[in-house]
Structure formats: structure tokens, C-alpha cells
Amino acid sequence: MNIFRLCGDMSHLAAIIILLLKMWKTRSVAGISGKSQILFATVFTARYLDLFTSFISIYNTCMKVFFIGTVYFTIYLIYMKFKATYDSNHDSFRVEFLIVPVGGLAFLVNHEFAPLEIIWTFSIYLESVAILPQLFMISKTGEAETITSHYLFALGSYRALYLCNWIYRYYAEGFFDLIAVVAGVVQTILYCDFFYLYITKVMKGKKISLPA
Amino acid sequence: DEFVPRHDEL
């Protein structure tokens, strides 16, 4: 563990907590893409299959349980509890255009042609594009609530911090995982446009409103 | 064969 990875995990944790607070306090899921949350649930389920087979640390196990638990709770809030406030018309990204290519790529490019390894690779590739339905929804509605912007900033920062973690681990431990790094770079790049809007607008107290 | 990194990250 290093400071970059710890900050990354804390940023990820913060993002999930911000999202839950937004939904619980406003009792609304307006502006939140249920499809992205379903993709995140798929990512965590696929990645944490080893939750019961390989023990890394208490921290690792607790975080995995928390991430899986909260993402399914988020889906429950979106599609059941606060279903009336879910804006399905604007959440229209065709996720099959993500899942099929990512699934195919996981078969072709992986570290080892073994079931668990291919599923892990699938979760890494899927995570790098899982935010697209959410960003697409914001571009369609033309604006994002400030709390949603904070959620996205924390979520985008988590993988950017992981990139720093991988640089550190390369020099400190000689650890290098090309698949995770490439997917992490793609994932972080997808947020750049949003990061620019967040820093130039939200930091000055303005709302994010894209030219619709 | 190629070293398969143990996935110790979240």
C-alpha cells in the first residue's frame, strides 16, 4: 500500500458516499445514470469474485464488501425506491456497444487465458468506459447538479491517483500491470473534459451547464 | 510463461 493508492481508494469511497448522500438527502436520483451504476456493479462483481478465495488484507476485504454492497444499494435506490425520479429518457446510452467490444477484448488481450483472469481483465476494461452513460446523460440534459459534479470529480480522481500509484509501484517494487495502466489512462482521459469544467466552473461556485 | 501480477488492488 502507498499514499497514492490510499488516497485513490479514499477518493473512490468519497465518490460512493457523496452519491448515496445526494440520493438519500434529496430523495431523488435525478441526473444519475442507472446504466453507469449497473456497469459499475458488473465491474465490482467481476473483479471481486476472489473475495472469498484469496485473502489480501482486512482493508482489502472490507473495501470490496463495501463497494459491492453500496453499488447494489445504489441500483436499488435508482430502479426501485426513487424510481419516480429516475430520468430514463436521458439515460439512453446503448451499453451493449460497450459490453460486447470490452468482452471480446478481454478474451484477446489478457495476462493469462484462464477464466478468473479473463473475467478480471473484463472488469478492468469495462471500468474504463463505465462512466460513459453518465457523461452522455449530462451532455443530453445539458447540466449537472453540483453534488453530482463532486461525485464525478471524486470518481475521476480515484483512477488518476491510481496512475500515480502504478508509477510509484513501478519504481519502488518493480510492479507493472500494462492492462490496468492502459485502461486506467483511458478511464482518466474520459474525465478530462469534465475535470476542466469542474475546475473552471464548480470551483467558482457556478453550476456545470454544457452547451446543450 | 509471462508473470501474472497478483491482483492485490481494489
What best-fitting shape of chain A do the alpha-carbon axes yield?
globular
Low-confidence stretches of chain A: none
What share of residues of chain B is helical? under 10%
**Average predicted local confidence, pLDDT of chain A:** 96
Global outline of chain B: rod-shaped
**Oligomer state of the chains in this structure:** heterodimer
- Count the domains of chain A: 1
Largest sheet of chain B: none
Report low-confidence residues of chain B grouped into runs of 5 or more.
none
Radius of gyration of chain A: 17 Å
Please report the total strand number of chain A as a whole number. 2
Count of DSSP H/I helices of chain B? 0
Protein structure class of chain A: mainly alpha
Which bin fits the share of residues in helices of chain A?
Answer: over 70%
Task: Draw up the topology in text.
The complex is a heterodimer of chains A (212) and B (10).
Chain A: H1 3-26, H2 34-47, H3 58-81, H4 96-108, H5 115-129, H6 132-141, E1 143-144, H7 146-173, H8 178-200, E2 208-209
Antiparallel strand pairs in A: 1-2
Chain B: no helix or strand
